[in-house]
Amino acid sequence: MKLGVASAVLATTARSIAQSPATSAIHSLPALPYAASDLAPHIDVETMNIHHGKHHAAYIAKLNEALATQSDLAKLSLDALQGQIHSINDPATQAALRNNGGGHWNHSFFWSIMTPAKDAGKPSEKLAAAINEAFGSIEKFQAAFAEAAMKRFGSGWAWLIIQNGKLKITSTPNQDNPLMKGIVSDAELGKPLLGLDVWEHAYYLHYQNRRADYITAWWNVVNWNAVNALLST
Ligand code: MN
């Protein structure tokens, strides 16, 4: 909120909005779990600030706007919401929830599976074994994941998911994700362990058109401890 000539009035309005369940924000921007500059040089501070403070914040604002007329969906957790978006009949509302509910989930997840390079850790024995079983080796897994990220035409995400107890690499367009039952194909549904944002807004300031360089650098800031924990829960 801007502070200006009517700041006293605005402050009063803000208090009354905060006290009213019907109009308070349903979802809010999570703080980054590290400083925006902490992922440099792999992801630069300007990209992080715009990506988190502008792009992610905009998804949340538009999600809350869409949920204002959806009292049942507004009660759901962000996780649970993903699986219910398909049930919305109105195409415009469904699109708003798909793009912005997905955008909020995907970015919240993305921040959580990254960390400063010095804290990156490594795959646990359990994760390494699962990766070896599914892909042959860590190197082969990383190559296959990078290929999925490179092949995503336009905007979207590459994912490592658990599906029926096995690891699988998938990719979704735009802000779709592996939790969106009834929207993405059943073959792409699962529990995400890793997700890589390959929208140009995620890398263009620093890498311009060099998506491959962004993907290579990104491995340095993968939070393996977080991924290990996701595998075990
Ligand atoms: Mn993004």
Overview features:
233 residues; three-stranded antiparallel beta sheet; 48% helix; 10% strand; disordered N terminus
Give the SSE layout.
Layout: H1 7-19, H2 45-67, H3 71-74, H4 78-82, H5 91-112, H6 125-135, H7 138-151, E1 156-163, E2 166-173, E3 191-197, H8 204-207, H9 211-218, H10 224-231
Antiparallel strand pairs: 1-2, 1-3
Helix pairs in contact: 2-5, 6-7
The structure holds manganese (II) ion.
Manganese (II) ion (MN) binds at residues 51, 55, 107, 197, 199, 201-202.
What does the model show?
This protein is mainly alpha-helical and 233 residues long. It has helices at residues 7-19, 45-67, 71-74, 78-82, 91-112, 125-135, 138-151, 204-207, 211-218, 224-231, and strands spanning 156-163, 166-173, 191-197. The longest helix has 23 residues, at 45-67. 48% of the residues lie in helices and 10% in strands. Residues 1-22 have low confidence and may be disordered. It has a 3-stranded antiparallel sheet with strand order 2-1-3, sandwiched between helices. The chain has one domain (41-233): 3-Layer(bab) Sandwich (minor pseudopilin epsh fold). It has 10 helices and 3 strands; from the N terminus they run H-H-H-H-H-H-H-E-E-E-H-H-H. The protein starts with 6 loop residues before the first helix and ends with a helix. Helix 2 (45-67) runs antiparallel to helix 5 and helix 6 crosses helix 7. It binds manganese (II) ion (MN).
